[in-house]
Design goal:
This protein is mostly helical. It has four helices and two strands. Keywords: DNA-directed RNA polymerase, Nucleotidyltransferase, Transcription, Transferase.
Length: 69
């Protein structure tokens, strides 16, 4: 996970994976400058650590298709 992403999460009192899993996708995306790329970093982290994805999805803007990771 990038330093930028970790800093955004720390600023919003997310210090552990447990804290992160409890958040809704909408809450994360409401953080200024926390967009789809940053959300994808979080999803990738869950995959690497084999933590169940809390149902977050990336919606591509070009054709508005949802991709679950």
């Amino acid at each position: 996970m990038s330093v930028r992403t970790v800093n955004y999460l720390k600023e919003h009192k997310v210090h552990t994976i447990g804290d992160l899993v409890k958040l809704k996708q909408e809450d994360l995306l409401s953080i200024p400058n926390f967009g789809e790329q940053t959300l994808q970093e979080c999803i990738d982290l869950f995959d690497r650590l084999k933590v169940p994805n809390p149902g977050w999805e990336i919606v591509t803007k070009k054709n508005n298709k949802k991709t679950k990771s």
